[in-house]
């Protein structure tokens, strides 16, 4: 290779003139070196260029998305979980997505890596959450779903959803109770965080309150809380075994409401809300598709109950016809309920589409429901009542989007695969629904499965309670029921647990060092069952020993940020003659606590829910300089520090002011916390479902905004409002008008962009004087 070089002191520009320049035409010195040295020189040059390129484009952004159970912006590994299935993208200054991935649903749940990024470059990192979820609060471990991050750094995000209990405040568990001990009360309650026993042998009754008598309301079945005013709504059990499950005094179509607005969410009183049969149109809850000659549980009456997160709509399963009743309770207060209940509430029924509720030689029997993250979840079974094929007995979980009314099938599972044994007999198979019931505690038997409740955990996965229909018809002290754990897949559907494994989680129930009740080996470990749960083993500790697996009775409640569920059980601890509730870790399946409510080992708890304080709400987030005037938050544009932002209520009264930090951020929150200049907490006037204005008052006079005007507002053509500017000019103020959503609906998309131009006349007015 030849080199053309200038001698020292020569004029390079002279090459472009006619004047000769003193130059040297010579071979480069390394050409005279031995071939090996020349090769090594070329190799080193190649490696240097290659490694410099790798350094420039070999950086990554990593992080974790987690479910922020107490909505405080910090990841607490002991009781909060990683959240998979979130799409994460990195955008460069041209708004090009240069890296994309999805947070893991396997090991290292919720983690992600964006690779191939340029060293020293800042990117806009966007997190796209599943429908119904929103940002958690900002804090030490979480920012918003749009972050500006330099390659080589970390970006974490907490997610949350609406309608959940505030874990850090009073939570009162409310349970429906069958009449199993000759008592007269059918509704009991206790503080979720009361001291709970962890001893093995304990047959004493734990502290709780007996609230409502069965003569007044029957036995609760489905339960749904409206926590903003501490009301618990419930349907009642309709079943032939009246001695244990006495019917409601107002009939099978009755819905009751209990008031828990007393100190510590204690009970105040109860009323009949309405009889669906008395409304217009009248709702018939009678058995319209009988399995046999007798009415049995799941064929008539009302099932699961829940309310939308805004508390305006109540849903309840009509088990008589398999439809979902929709009831307008927006105007209901406890004080306004008339004697004898309402007769004028607006009511309708929703028919579940046959294409996702299809059953072979049987009928779909919906019985449980749950409102969660903007969707209505429905659980039930294909009863296989006309089938001779066991595999037609199927468990189904369906979901309806409450905004679009679109239905989706999440789970379709063959229940005939489950054949758990008992203390005295090694096989109690799940069988089709029929009119006769088989089984006693000392011999062979069958389980006709009936879904008593469903609940959604912090992973977004469904946990299912299944009861034996026999306990509602003939014997309430035989094998009662079981629980199943699923895990959410990338497409949002559910995978059934298998052999003690659910998604990335593995049950520790058999090896529980605490030796709490369940599947840990005990004195009768030699009586192992031929088979038990899905795939041969259960995930959750639903038994007392390996050979006594069917002790679940009914109801499931999950308090976010605890990694545990509360559910009704016979022998909640290892005492053999009690009934109450177990606290079970849904991460490992191990029982952690228990509460005994009665000294009788029978089907006692029928439903479980809780009244609590609603979650906080938080809004924000960014003030920045839109240097290229495109109305978009680009990663190479500067934040504006020191801007005063004001929160005003609907009447214009100032509630709080904040000053943007060096990242241009501001936060207003109703939650607890230590306020700083940019983050203001404990704002009493910031409430769900209310109107506000976020303003930058007299913007032109604020020093950081001198000479700037508002950029174009709301340019996002793809419907994404998280990366544009939202403010318009009202007189001299930059203003965003907002309406908050339900409790827990944090919104960090209220952003202000400024630039030097005057798009759409948004410049601040100024006065020019001549001297």
3D structure, described in words:
With 771 residues, the protein is mainly beta. It has four domains: 30 residues, no CATH class; 129 residues, Immunoglobulins (Immunoglobulin-like), CATH 2.60.40; 429 residues, Kelch-type beta propeller (Neuraminidase, 6 Propeller), CATH 2.120.10.80; 157 residues, Immunoglobulin-like (Sandwich), CATH 2.60.40.10. The chain contains two helices and 47 strands. The strands form twelve sheets. Strands 3, 4, 7, 9 and 11 form a five-stranded mixed beta sheet that branches. The N terminus and C terminus are likely disordered.
SSE blueprint and pairings:
Elements lengths: L1 E5 L16 E5 L7 H23 L1 E9 L13 E2 L4 E5 L5 E6 L8 E7 L4 E7 L4 E3 L10 E5 L6 E5 L9 E7 L7 E7 L17 E5 H4 L2 E7 L4 E6 L17 E6 L9 E7 L26 E6 L5 E6 L4 E6 L18 E4 L13 E9 L2 E8 L11 E8 L5 E8 L34 E8 L5 E7 L12 E8 L5 E3 L4 E2 L2 E2 L45 E7 L5 E7 L8 E7 L5 E8 L6 E8 L5 E8 L18 E6 L4 E6 L5 E5 L9 E2 L10 E6 L12 E2 L17 E3 L2 E7 L12 E4 L16
Parallel strand pairs: 3-11, 38-47, 41-42
Antiparallel strand pairs: 1-2, 3-4, 3-7, 5-6, 5-8, 8-10, 9-11, 12-13, 12-37, 13-14, 15-16, 16-17, 17-18, 19-20, 20-21, 21-22, 23-24, 24-25, 25-26, 27-28, 28-29, 29-30, 31-32, 33-34, 34-35, 35-36, 38-41, 39-40, 39-43, 43-46, 44-47, 45-46
């Amino acid at each position: 290779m030849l080199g053309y070089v200038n001698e020292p002191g020569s004029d390079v520009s002279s090459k472009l003139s006619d004047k000769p320049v003193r130059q040297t035409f010579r071979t480069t010195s390394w050409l005279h070196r031995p071939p090996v040295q020349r090769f090594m020189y070329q190799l080193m040059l190649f490696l240097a260029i290659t490694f410099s390129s790798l350094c420039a484009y070999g950086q990554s952004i990593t992080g974790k998305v987690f479910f922020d159970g107490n909505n405080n912006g910090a990841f607490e590994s002991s009781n909060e979980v990683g959240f998979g299935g979130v799409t994460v993208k990195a955008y460069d200054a041209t708004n090009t997505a240069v890296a994309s991935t999805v947070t893991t649903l396997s090991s290292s749940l919720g983690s992600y890596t964006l690779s191939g990024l340029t060293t020293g470059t800042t990117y806009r990192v966007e997190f796209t959450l599943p429908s119904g979820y929103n940002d958690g609060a900002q804090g030490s471990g979480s920012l918003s779903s749009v972050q500006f991050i330099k390659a080589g750094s970390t970006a974490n995000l907490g997610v949350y959803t609406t309608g959940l209990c505030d874990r850090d405040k009073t939570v009162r568990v409310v349970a429906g109770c069958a009449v199993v001990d000759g008592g007269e009360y059918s509704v009991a309650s206790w503080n979720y965080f009361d001291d709970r026993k962890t001893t093995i042998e304990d047959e004493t009754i734990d502290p709780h309150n007996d609230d409502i008598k069965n003569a007044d309301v029957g036995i609760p079945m489905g339960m749904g809380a409206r926590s903003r005013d501490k009301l618990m709504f419930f349907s009642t059990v309709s079943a032939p075994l009246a001695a244990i499950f006495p019917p409601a005094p107002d009939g099978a179509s009755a819905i009751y409401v209990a008031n828990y607005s007393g100190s510590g969410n204690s009970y105040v009183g109860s009323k009949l809300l309405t009889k669906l049969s008395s409304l217009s149109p009248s709702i018939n809850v009678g058995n319209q598709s009988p399995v046999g000659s007798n009415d049995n549980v799941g064929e008539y009456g009302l099932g699961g109950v829940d309310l939308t997160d805004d508390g305006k709509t109540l849903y309840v399963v009509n088990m008589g016809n398999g439809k979902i009743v929709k009831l307008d309770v927006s105007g209901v207060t406890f004080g306004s309920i008339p004697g004898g209940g309402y007769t004028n509430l607006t009511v309708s029924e929703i028919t579940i589409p046959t294409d996702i509720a299809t059953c072979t030689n049987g009928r779909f029997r919906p019985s449980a429901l749950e409102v969660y993250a903007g969707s209505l979840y429905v659980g039930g079974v294909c009863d296989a009542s006309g089938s001779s094929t066991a595999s037609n007995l199927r468990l189904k979980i369906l979901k309806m989007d409450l905004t679009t009314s679109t239905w989706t099938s999440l789970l379709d599972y063959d229940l005939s695969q489950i054949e758990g044994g008992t203390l005295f007999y090694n096989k109690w198979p799940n069988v089709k629904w029929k009119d006769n019931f088989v089984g006693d505690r000392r011999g062979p038997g069958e389980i006709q499965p009936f879904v008593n409740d469903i609940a959604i955990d912090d992973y977004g996965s469904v946990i299912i309670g299944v009861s034996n229909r026999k306990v509602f018809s003939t014997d309430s002290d035989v094998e009662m029921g079981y629980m199943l754990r699923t895990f959410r897949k990338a497409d949002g559907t559910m995978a059934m647990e298998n052999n003690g494994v659910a998604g990335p989680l593995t049950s520790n129930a058999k090896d529980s060092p605490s030796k709490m009740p369940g599947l840990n080996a005990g004195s009768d470990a030699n009586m192992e069952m031929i088979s038990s749960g899905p795939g041969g083993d259960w995930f959750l500790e639903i038994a007392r020993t390996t050979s006594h697996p069917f002790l679940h009775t009914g109801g499931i409640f999950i308090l976010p940020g605890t990694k545990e569920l509360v559910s009704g059980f016979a022998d909640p601890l290892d005492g053999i003659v009690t009934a109450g509730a177990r606290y079970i870790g849904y991460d490992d399946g191990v029982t952690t606590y228990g509460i005994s409510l009665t000294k009788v080992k029978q089907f006692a708890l029928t439903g479980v829910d809780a009244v609590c304080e609603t979650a906080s709400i938080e809004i924000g987030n960014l003030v920045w300089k839109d240097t290229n005037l495109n109305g978009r938050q680009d990663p190479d544009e500067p934040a504006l520090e020191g801007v005063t932002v004001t929160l005003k209520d609907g009447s214009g009264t100032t509630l709080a002011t904040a000053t943007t930090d060096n990242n241009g951020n501001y936060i207003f929150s109703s939650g607890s916390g230590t306020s700083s200049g940019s983050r203001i907490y404990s704002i009493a006037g910031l409430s769900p479902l209310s109107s506000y204005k976020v303003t930058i008052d007299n913007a032109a006079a604020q020093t950081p905004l001198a000479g700037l005007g508002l950029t174009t507002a709301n340019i996002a053509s793809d419907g994404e409002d998280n990366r544009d500017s939202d403010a318009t000019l009202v007189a001299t103020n930059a203003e965003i008008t907002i309406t908050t959503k339900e409790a827990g609906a944090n919104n960090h998309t209220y952003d202000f962009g400024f630039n030097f131009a005057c798009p759409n006349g948004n410049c601040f007015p100024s006065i020019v004087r001549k001297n």
